[in-house]
Amino acid sequence: MAYHSGYGAHGSKHRARAAPDPPPLFEDTSGGYSSQPGGYPAPGADVAFSVNHLLGDPMANVAMAYGSSIASHGKDMVHKELHRFVSVNKLKYFFAVDSAYVAKKLGLLVFPYTHQNWEVQYSRDVPLPPRQDLNAPDLYIPTMAFITYVLLAGMALGIQKRFSPEVLGLCASTALVWVVMEVLALLLGLYLATVRSDLSTFHLLAYSGYKYVGMILSVLTGLLFGSDGYYVALAWTSSALMYFIVRSLRTAALGPDSVGGPVPRQRLQLYLTLGAAAFQPLIIYWLTFHLVR
């Protein structure tokens, strides 16, 4: 019997030498990668290598610094242009409200006849925010009332089966345009009457926007009790808003400068205040009568 070369002459076995590992199919070119058993790189090694390579590249550092400077410069330009047209600090003042102020202000808009003191309160020549002064104008109630009016108009049109996105958009845009026109007319009137006061565009927008509260009450009453209830609510809310506008404008905005001034200027200020108040019922009726049938 023939014997294998690994066996001795007398049939005794000898331990065979282990064969060398086969060469890898591909050479490892990862360089600084630390490998794990099996030839795979350590987890996160490629990310660390990329970050280290990026941080070590001077051109990348320059590009990052240049991009940061451009972003910072653009942010400054945006803030500068925004402050040119809208004062963010003043806008925050008109939204500094709380739930107690909102409840009391709504009651004042509906029942203003029992209110005694209409003067705006100051602290170190700075007017107190609305949440600390009931007489201070705000933009929170007009904004929320405008949104509520648009939703209520959509519901009223839906009940009457006259709803469409075009009609609802027309109601919203018409209400907004009327307020803008009213504010522009008041600004022109103040300029022509040469009234010196702290009355700003935000103040006029707030006083003009309070009419949405009366519009909401009128439409709700009309939906619940018909046209008779609508006209009763319209008369009450209109008279209350007129009284509120006259007292607020005369004391909070026009009062200090009108005292001791020339008689013609006082008359112009009085006519301007009465005209702004008398215009409110007309706008309320024009924007709500088609919603109640």
UniProtKB/TrEMBL annotation:
The compartments listed are: Endoplasmic reticulum membrane; Golgi apparatus membrane
GO CC annotations, alphabetized:
COPII-coated ER to Golgi transport vesicle; endoplasmic reticulum membrane; endoplasmic reticulum-Golgi intermediate compartment; Golgi membrane
Gene Ontology terms describing biological process: endoplasmic reticulum to Golgi vesicle-mediated transport; protein transport
Q: Region (Disordered) spans which residues?
A: 1-37
Name the source's superkingdom. Answer: Eukaryota
Q: Which residues cross the membrane?
A: 139-161, 167-192, 204-224, 230-249, 270-288
What keywords are assigned to this protein? Answer: Endoplasmic reticulum, Golgi apparatus, Membrane, Protein transport, Transmembrane, Transmembrane helix, Transport
Q: Does the keyword RNA-binding apply?
A: no
Keyword set includes Disulfide bond: no
Membrane topology label: Multi-pass membrane protein
List, alphabetically, the Pfam families matched: YIF1 (PF03878)
InterPro entries from the UniProt entry = Yif1_fam
Membership in a protein family: Belongs to the YIF1 family.
Q: What does this protein do?
A: Has a role in transport between endoplasmic reticulum and Golgi.
Q: What is this protein called?
A: Protein YIF1
Q: What is the lineage of its organism?
A: Eukaryota, Metazoa, Chordata, Craniata, Vertebrata
